[in-house]
Specification:
It is found in: Cell membrane. This is Metal-dependent hydrolase. It comes from Rhizocola hellebori. This protein has a 6-stranded mixed sheet, with helices on both faces. A 4-stranded antiparallel sheet has the order 2-1-4-5, with helices on one face. The protein is α/β, with parallel strands linked by helices. Helices cover 36% and strands 24% of the residues. It binds adenosine-5'-diphosphate (ADP). Adenosine-5'-diphosphate binds next to β2 and α1. The site of adenosine-5'-diphosphate (ADP) has 11 residues, from β2 and α1.
Length: 255
């Protein structure tokens, strides 16, 4: 393997909401090609960290680097173009569009929703070009969604909706994919499928950072795990290392 190169470097990031210190001088580095887990009790700052990295929040202090570029407080739009894609804890799919159209919207990066093409598209006057449609079909197939292409996401089982959200994030062709609790609400079989999907995403060259409460999944999937508690990094290492760290055991007992 070539020497590990950082794709994401978080340097002393703090995020305060009035008096509340959601993140306190967080530093961590994610190498290209890694599957990194982020765990921690509720309220420990995990989603806030994703919000900072994906540009939704401007950190109170500290810097965020993507590869070597300082991306601190770049807009979500710019960060998406630079290769960061994410999913949300609560699904955010377009409810009235079919699964295929949800993917087409993401594949067509020219902000289709804000212009007339969307109206024309909805009216059936304008169609996505063949290459985009072919790419959508490829994504549908890759994520086991071909049979659901014409369904509205809301009609589908929850685990399938989660796959749609991941497929949609992948439609942006990211280099770094942030997954916020992707296993929440999934049954055992769906968790197993999710695990395969994350591995295949990494195999395609995408770095994955995953916030997850399902410890079995984190332990089997992630090479390294970063543990947050009260907005601080309290441990960082292999799953086995962090699982036996006394400060981690203590943080979870207090949860
Ligand atoms: P986790 O994802 O680990 O459960 P969060 O990052 O969601 O934790 O929250 C960390 C802390 O920051 C919580 O106390 C939460 O209430 C607070 N917080 C998160 N976002 C905001 C916000 N936009 N405004 C005020 N407080 C926030």
């Amino acid at each position: 393997r070539p020497a590990a190169e950082p794709i994401l470097r978080i340097d002393e990031v703090s995020m305060h909401f009035r008096g509340l210190k959601a993140l306190q001088e967080i530093s961590m580095t994610v190498n290209a090609g890694e599957i990194r887990g982020i765990v921690g009790p509720n309220g420990s700052g995990k989603t806030t960290l994703f919000n900072v990295v994906s540009g939704l929040y401007r950190p109170t202090a500290g810097r965020v680097y993507l590869a070597d570029k300082d991306m601190t407080a770049a807009s979500p739009h710019v960060l998406a173009r630079k290769g960061i894609a994410r999913t949300f804890q609560n699904l955010r799919l377009f409810a009235l569009l079919s699964v295929r159209d949800n993917l087409l919207v993401a594949l067509d990066q020219t902000s289709i929703l804000s212009n007339w093409r969307y109206v024309l598209w909805q009216a059936g006057v304008w169609r996505h070009d063949q290459s985009l449609r072919a790419e959508a079909d490829e994504l549908l197939q890759r994520f086991g969604l071909t049979d659901f292409a014409d369904s509205a996401p809301g009609e589908l089982p929850y685990g399938t909706q989660r796959r749609v959200e991941i497929a949609r994030a992948m439609a942006r062709r990211p280099s770094l994919l942030l997954l916020d609790e992707p296993a929440a609400g999934l049954n055992g079989e769906e968790v197993r499928q999710l695990s395969e999907i994350v591995r295949s995403i990494r195999a395609s060259g995408v770095t994955v950072v995953i916030i997850e409460h399902n410890m079995g999944l984190v332990m089997s999937l992630c090479e390294r795990v970063t543990v947050l508690a009260s907005g601080r990094v309290i441990a960082d290492g292999t799953p086995a290392e962090v699982a036996r760290a006394p400060q981690v055991v203590e943080a979870y007992l207090g949860d």
